[in-house]
Amino acid sequence: MNVFRARIFTPLGSPFSTPDLRSTYAYFDDGYLAVADDGSIESIGDWQSRPHRLSEEPLVEFGENIIISPGFVDTHLHAPQLEMIGSYGGHLLEWLARYTFPTEAKFADEHYARSIGRALFDELLRNGTTTALIFSSVHARATGVLFEEAERRGFRAIIGKALMDRNAPENLLESAADAYENSRALILQWHKHEMLRYAISPRFAPTSTPELLEVAGTLKREFPDVYVHTHVSENRAEVDWVAELFPESGSYVDVYDRAGLLDQRSVLAHGVHLTDGELEVLSERQARLSHCPNSNLFLGSGLFPMNRVVKAGVVFGLGSDIGAGTTPSLFNAMSDAYKVQQVLGTSLSPFHLWYLATLGGAAALLLDAFTGSLERGKDADFVALDLNGSPLLARRTANASLIEDLLAGLIFLGDERIVSRTFIKGEEVSAR
Fold first, then answer.
1. Fewest CB within a 10 Å sphere: which of 19, 22, 163, 422?
2. What are the backbone angles phi and psi of residue 336, rounded to the nearest 5°?
3. Per-residue pLDDT tens over the stretch 62-80
């Protein structure tokens, strides 16, 4: 067992479901986190109230300038797009053609895919992300490489091979039959292998024929506990295009629903332009959304209607959406989520934002029994955040006496410089 001493903050429940924010988190100004040998949390609490038996265990004293928090959960990103992050210009469909497809074609080279996979997990861990839902390219071997690299780093990942059979360059297309066979082989090899899970991943409706979506639905029926990962209603032109391509469907969401792709393990990125009827269907199917404010702003896609999503009862988390998202940092995702809702007339507290980046994201991925908060029995996935990680943050937080003020400083001034150390199941996996 190891015992860690520092300030400790953890969400415990959703601040979207109660006006009593104090009941949704725990904060210890001088706390301890006891981690058992199997990587689970043995206990947590105030340092002065710790059990006497812990006095014999190895102690790591971080000091008063460190806040221990759950590791971050990224609910949507594209591994192949790491090297094109921040590519300038264009809205969604133009951006895909100009940058994304040529970059993803490089994943045909296994060695290239491995170099990107290694860099990706380095970046995520450096930024305090310990769990992520990840799109690969269409290449089966490259997808296997991503699983291998996640396993090597001890990362908690849900990964899927992209499925496309139209409206993309020829070298990124595969037949529906090949999509089935390649995806099925990856599921059998990697799904539920240690901390790894598989996601059936049709890129989005416009690059899918009805036959491909039927294959995806067949896989989902064959393996009901795998995830589904795709996009929905990111851009108005995209929504109009889906209506043209699928005239028999009543809406964008209906395209996926008809294929049998919506349940509680389905995560749809963006959802900026969903109708009330579509939100109702997502709620009924218990499908999830990933809110990716950075990429929505970068591509000019629109503003996420959070109040309507919450009212409809649709679960959602935050995503970096690398590479239209310009940083893997979920500090940035929290900051941009705040700004988007400010424009829409709602002020989110730091507790709402931190919940979305941790426990809320874990709940969106149905992993909240294992990670997302620091509670007895859960895996010890956590980050040590340095309040002196940058000169401006040190100045900003020096006189902050309330936890909400400390969290606000971290959210709006934080980046990878303040992530001192990252742990998964109690093992240090990254250090500044």
1. 19
2. -70, -35
3. 999 999 999 999 999 999 9
